[in-house]
Specification:
The structure holds two protein chains of two kinds.
Chain A (H helix, E strand, L loop, with lengths): L4 E3 L2 E4 L5 E6 L6 E7 L6 E7 L2 E4 L8 E4 L6 E5 L8 E8 L7 E2 L3 E5 L1
Parallel strand pairs in A: 2-11
Antiparallel strand pairs in A: 1-3, 3-8, 4-5, 4-9, 5-6, 7-8, 9-10, 9-11
Chain B lengths: L3 E3 L4 E4 L4 E7 L6 E7 L6 E7 L2 E5 L2 E6 L4 E6 L8 E8 L8 E2 L3 E6 L1
Classes of the chains: A mainly beta, B mainly beta.
């Protein structure tokens, strides 16, 4: 079974530029999560989808971050404009439903200069 | 004070040693407790998921929860070089992964 796929794996941008990350969850997984993991910290949930609806986006900085999951399958996370403090690894995870084991992708490393 | 405290390490042990990894927490609402393993440049992988106080064993791994002390532990028996990774504790007031708070992780190195 294929795991959670993410792209790109690495991205370097300058502050105030925009960037987008893509995630393809495990086939059949209804729940999709985006996390931000800053170096030396644990992951922080940014947004959680159940199919194509948002379950929780309370920690998403909505003035600059947006995410969508059209058709309830793959998802994109966008940052516009980026700030230096957005440098982090952005992890996508998926699970069969809200309480089943979640599986993480390898993450996208973002460096904002 | 952080809700979840975890010693960042690094922790170096010889192969075959018993490893003890620990977290403390302050939020008494936490009921579900998790341990993740994260290899360098990879996403976290769920190792153990436990509910309330008590012990849970899975192979060489044992998770222990003491809610009265707000303290959780992960023990690794017969540690192997392949166990070298960062171990993250996590906890939530509800079943599932919506309101999970992660620790900062402990980096473990098992030396052959």
């Amino acid at each position: 079974e294929a795991g959670v796929a993410q792209s790109p794996r690495y991205k370097i941008i300058e502050k105030r530029q925009s960037v987008a990350f893509w995630c393809n969850p495990i086939s059949g997984h209804a729940t999709l999560y985006w996390y931000q993991q800053i170096l030396g910290q644990g992951p922080k949930l940014l947004i959680q989808f159940q199919n194509n609806g948002v379950v929780d986006d309370s920690q998403l900085p909505k003035d600059r971050f947006s995410a969508e999951r059209l058709k309830g399958v793959d998802s994109t996370l966008k940052i516009q404009p980026a700030k230096l403090e957005d440098s982090a690894v952005y992890l996508c995870a998926s699970s069969l439903d809200l309480v089943e084991t979640q599986y993480f992708g390898p993450g996208t490393r973002l460096l904002v200069l | 004070q952080k809700e979840v405290e975890q010693d960042p390490g690094p922790l170096s042990v010889p192969e075959g040693a018993i490893v003890s990894l620990n977290c403390t927490y302050s939020n008494s609402a936490f009921q579900y407790f998790m341990w993740y393993r994260q290899y360098s440049r990879k996403g976290p992988e769920l190792l153990m998921y436990t509910y309330s106080s008590g012990n849970k064993e899975d192979g060489r791994f044992t998770a222990q929860v003491d809610k009265s002390s707000k303290y959780i532990s992960l023990f690794i028996r017969d540690s192997q070089p392949s166990d070298s990774a960062t171990y993250l504790c996590a906890m939530s007031p509800a079943r599932g992964y919506q309101k999970v708070t992660f620790g900062t992780g402990t980096k473990l190195q098992v030396i052959p």
